[in-house]
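Review box. Two proteins, two foldings.
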Amino acid sequence: MRFVNLLFQRGVLIAIVAVAWLLASSRVPSFVLPGPAKVWSALQMIAHSDSFLHDVGTTMGRVVSGFVLATLIGTPLGLALGSSKRLAVFFEPILAIFNTVSSAIWAIFAILWFGISDATTVFVVFMTAMPLILTNVWKGAQTVDHLYVGLAQSFRMSRLQILRKIYLPTILPYFFSGARLAFGFGWRVSLVAETLGSSDGIGYRLRQASDLVQSDQVFAWTALLIAMMLLLEAGVLKPLENRLFRWKTTAGAN
């Protein structure tokens, strides 16, 4: 019943947005705000183009590569900072700088260093996602109860066993929260990087359509991006979160 009510609410919301969009587009030139029918036609044309799968796959590959690299580097660094106050105090100013610099600035640096290449987008995604993952893992590691760590040491558990059996269950919710946020930001900043420093991908096609004042294609690519993000959220990230943390639901029920 709750699912049906939620589905009904979403349907009403979509209908309201569609009607408002249709009314607004009828009062302004199409190059300013194309109507739903024109955007749908543009979306069909894009989907049947020869470069569509290549552009989508290229952007996805760049985002995933930058995200995986950020996870592989940010997670152990976050654990190190969370388990050592000296390291945390020493590196905290550097982390603050990383969190302050915008993705557009990283994109400019990437173009200077890597030129027009895949590395440009991967680097920007990495520099945006890594501080988020690092910070969340760091905060999660700080919540580990040192009583459990001392008890594990008294039983002569190895450092790896302590990390796996005590630290990992504690930081996993923090990591997943940071990873979801980082992946979402990674998608957005990849478009910035591709707009400035790529010759293919979704960001490049958006810039191309904008330069040619093809507003219907700009809206079509944007709608496609939103649909892809919603599918990833509902089809991959949310089920994965429910599977990883179903023990919380079980514990709460008991």
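Next protein.
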Amino acid sequence: MAKILKIDGENISVGMDDGSIKEFKKSDCNFKPLINDEVEIFRDNEKVIINKKQTMLENLTNKKPINKVIYCVFALFFGGIGIHKFYAGKNVAGILYLIFCWTFVPSILAFIDFIIGLFKSSDANGNIII
């Protein structure tokens, strides 16, 4: 599986399946390349197209996976003020948790979020979708 190893200005270095490293232009990518992105490279006589391989979780939803352990720790210890919601990218819910933290209702909901997060199965990288 090809993987982006280095990004230099307008060039990217890609580690190929055979162990070699090849240079490509950043403009050949149809996404914003980041180091460690797994990619597929397609070539014809004059053009190269680099596509990002998506993980199973990214294919199922348009949401970005988050680390399960970090989410559960945030939900357990800082869930009453909504830190776990901010970490998951749910800013509106995080603000509501913060506004109503004095009622202790967000603390109860955060404990439920902790239990749900704890029992969600994670991918090979330890990520879950919330």
